[in-house]
Amino acid sequence: GIHKTWMFYLARICNHCTYPACLASCPRKAIYKREEDGVVLIDQSRCNGYRECVKACPYKKTFYNMISRTSEKCIGCFPLLERGEQPRCVQTCIGKIRMQGWLSKPEEAKEDNPIDYIVHIKKAALPLYPQFGLEPNVYYIPPIHVPKDFLMQMFGANHEKAVEVYKNIKSDPK
Contact, 76 vs 37, CB < 8 A? Predict the structure, then answer.
Protein backbone atom coordinates (compact mmCIF):
# COMPACT_ATOMS: atom_id res chain seq x y z
CA GLY A 1 0.00 0.00 0.00
CA ILE A 2 0.80 3.64 -0.12
CA HIS A 3 1.96 5.29 3.06
CA LYS A 4 0.13 8.40 4.13
CA THR A 5 2.74 11.16 4.17
CA TRP A 6 2.85 13.87 6.78
CA MET A 7 5.26 16.52 7.95
CA PHE A 8 5.42 19.18 10.58
CA TYR A 9 8.09 21.64 11.62
CA LEU A 10 9.02 21.87 15.27
CA ALA A 11 11.56 24.55 16.06
CA ARG A 12 13.27 23.31 19.20
CA ILE A 13 15.51 25.08 21.68
CA CYS A 14 17.32 23.82 24.75
CA ASN A 15 14.72 22.67 27.27
CA HIS A 16 16.70 23.95 30.29
CA CYS A 17 15.61 20.77 32.06
CA THR A 18 14.96 20.57 35.77
CA TYR A 19 17.31 17.56 35.83
CA PRO A 20 19.63 18.21 32.85
CA ALA A 21 21.38 15.12 31.48
CA CYS A 22 24.12 17.36 30.07
CA LEU A 23 24.94 18.69 33.54
CA ALA A 24 25.04 15.23 35.09
CA SER A 25 27.34 13.90 32.36
CA CYS A 26 30.03 16.59 32.42
CA PRO A 27 33.24 15.23 33.98
CA ARG A 28 34.63 18.78 34.34
CA LYS A 29 31.54 20.17 36.11
CA ALA A 30 31.50 22.90 33.47
CA ILE A 31 27.70 22.86 33.18
CA TYR A 32 25.50 24.52 35.75
CA LYS A 33 21.90 25.60 36.24
CA ARG A 34 21.26 29.16 37.35
CA GLU A 35 19.16 29.25 40.49
CA GLU A 36 17.51 32.58 39.67
CA ASP A 37 15.92 31.48 36.38
CA GLY A 38 16.74 27.83 35.68
CA VAL A 39 18.84 28.56 32.60
CA VAL A 40 21.40 25.80 31.98
CA LEU A 41 24.82 27.12 30.90
CA ILE A 42 28.25 25.80 29.98
CA ASP A 43 31.22 27.55 31.59
CA GLN A 44 33.51 27.84 28.56
CA SER A 45 36.58 28.31 30.74
CA ARG A 46 36.02 24.91 32.38
CA CYS A 47 34.90 22.95 29.32
CA ASN A 48 37.60 20.74 27.76
CA GLY A 49 35.38 19.56 24.91
CA TYR A 50 35.02 15.94 26.02
CA ARG A 51 31.54 15.95 24.39
CA GLU A 52 29.92 13.88 27.12
CA CYS A 53 27.14 16.47 27.29
CA VAL A 54 26.57 16.14 23.54
CA LYS A 55 26.09 12.38 23.95
CA ALA A 56 23.94 12.75 27.08
CA CYS A 57 21.36 15.26 25.85
CA PRO A 58 18.47 13.20 24.44
CA TYR A 59 17.09 16.36 22.80
CA LYS A 60 20.36 16.90 20.88
CA LYS A 61 20.61 20.56 21.88
CA THR A 62 24.27 20.59 22.91
CA PHE A 63 26.89 20.66 20.18
CA TYR A 64 30.66 20.62 19.84
CA ASN A 65 32.33 23.71 18.36
CA MET A 66 35.37 22.48 16.44
CA ILE A 67 36.93 25.96 16.37
CA SER A 68 36.77 26.69 20.11
CA ARG A 69 37.03 22.97 20.95
CA THR A 70 34.30 23.32 23.55
CA SER A 71 30.67 22.31 23.82
CA GLU A 72 28.02 24.97 23.35
CA LYS A 73 24.25 25.27 23.65
CA CYS A 74 21.39 27.73 23.84
CA ILE A 75 22.01 30.20 26.67
CA GLY A 76 18.36 31.13 27.04
CA CYS A 77 19.44 34.69 26.20
CA PHE A 78 20.16 35.13 29.90
CA PRO A 79 21.71 38.62 29.41
CA LEU A 80 18.35 39.74 27.99
CA LEU A 81 16.44 38.04 30.80
CA GLU A 82 18.57 39.93 33.32
CA ARG A 83 17.45 43.19 31.68
CA GLY A 84 13.79 42.12 31.76
CA GLU A 85 13.63 41.41 28.02
CA GLN A 86 12.36 38.34 26.20
CA PRO A 87 14.78 35.90 24.52
CA ARG A 88 15.49 36.53 20.83
CA CYS A 89 13.59 33.41 19.73
CA VAL A 90 10.46 34.85 21.38
CA GLN A 91 11.02 38.38 20.04
CA THR A 92 11.64 37.28 16.45
CA CYS A 93 9.16 34.41 16.10
CA ILE A 94 7.36 35.11 12.84
CA GLY A 95 4.18 33.37 13.98
CA LYS A 96 4.31 35.03 17.43
CA ILE A 97 3.65 31.60 18.94
CA ARG A 98 6.45 31.55 21.51
CA MET A 99 6.05 32.71 25.08
CA GLN A 100 8.56 32.88 27.89
CA GLY A 101 7.84 33.37 31.55
CA TRP A 102 7.38 31.74 34.91
CA LEU A 103 5.41 28.54 35.24
CA SER A 104 3.76 28.02 38.62
CA LYS A 105 3.55 24.69 40.40
CA PRO A 106 0.45 22.82 39.17
CA GLU A 107 -1.40 23.30 42.46
CA GLU A 108 -0.65 27.05 42.38
CA ALA A 109 -1.55 27.69 38.71
CA LYS A 110 -3.02 31.11 37.97
CA GLU A 111 -5.60 31.57 35.21
CA ASP A 112 -4.25 35.04 34.41
CA ASN A 113 -0.77 33.63 33.65
CA PRO A 114 -0.93 32.54 29.98
CA ILE A 115 1.73 29.87 30.47
CA ASP A 116 0.00 28.42 33.54
CA TYR A 117 -3.26 28.50 31.58
CA ILE A 118 -2.08 26.46 28.59
CA VAL A 119 0.20 24.09 30.58
CA HIS A 120 -1.59 23.46 33.91
CA ILE A 121 -5.20 24.57 33.49
CA LYS A 122 -6.06 23.61 29.90
CA LYS A 123 -3.21 21.07 29.57
CA ALA A 124 -2.84 21.92 25.88
CA ALA A 125 0.95 22.34 25.99
CA LEU A 126 3.17 19.39 26.87
CA PRO A 127 6.91 18.77 27.29
CA LEU A 128 8.80 16.72 24.72
CA TYR A 129 9.65 13.15 25.67
CA PRO A 130 8.47 13.26 29.30
CA GLN A 131 9.46 9.60 29.62
CA PHE A 132 13.13 10.65 29.85
CA GLY A 133 12.46 11.98 33.38
CA LEU A 134 14.48 15.18 32.88
CA GLU A 135 11.49 17.51 33.35
CA PRO A 136 12.06 19.75 30.34
CA ASN A 137 10.92 23.32 30.89
CA VAL A 138 9.82 24.03 27.32
CA TYR A 139 6.26 23.08 26.34
CA TYR A 140 4.69 22.51 22.94
CA ILE A 141 1.13 22.23 21.71
CA PRO A 142 1.17 18.92 19.82
CA PRO A 143 0.48 19.16 16.09
CA ILE A 144 -2.94 18.00 14.92
CA HIS A 145 -2.24 16.16 11.65
CA VAL A 146 0.46 13.78 12.86
CA PRO A 147 0.00 10.03 13.49
CA LYS A 148 -1.09 9.32 17.06
CA ASP A 149 1.68 6.78 17.69
CA PHE A 150 4.27 9.44 16.83
CA LEU A 151 2.58 11.95 19.15
CA MET A 152 2.51 9.32 21.90
CA GLN A 153 6.25 8.87 21.52
CA MET A 154 6.97 12.61 21.50
CA PHE A 155 4.49 13.90 24.09
CA GLY A 156 3.36 10.94 26.19
CA ALA A 157 -0.05 9.66 27.15
CA ASN A 158 -1.75 13.08 27.42
CA HIS A 159 -1.23 14.03 23.77
CA GLU A 160 -4.79 13.13 22.68
CA LYS A 161 -6.38 15.38 25.31
CA ALA A 162 -4.01 18.22 24.40
CA VAL A 163 -4.90 17.93 20.71
CA GLU A 164 -8.63 17.94 21.54
CA VAL A 165 -8.24 21.02 23.73
CA TYR A 166 -6.41 22.79 20.91
CA LYS A 167 -9.01 21.77 18.32
CA ASN A 168 -11.76 23.21 20.52
CA ILE A 169 -9.91 26.38 21.50
CA LYS A 170 -12.37 28.63 19.66
CA SER A 171 -15.13 27.60 22.04
CA ASP A 172 -13.01 28.39 25.10
CA PRO A 173 -14.48 31.44 26.89
CA LYS A 174 -11.01 32.71 27.84
Answer: yes
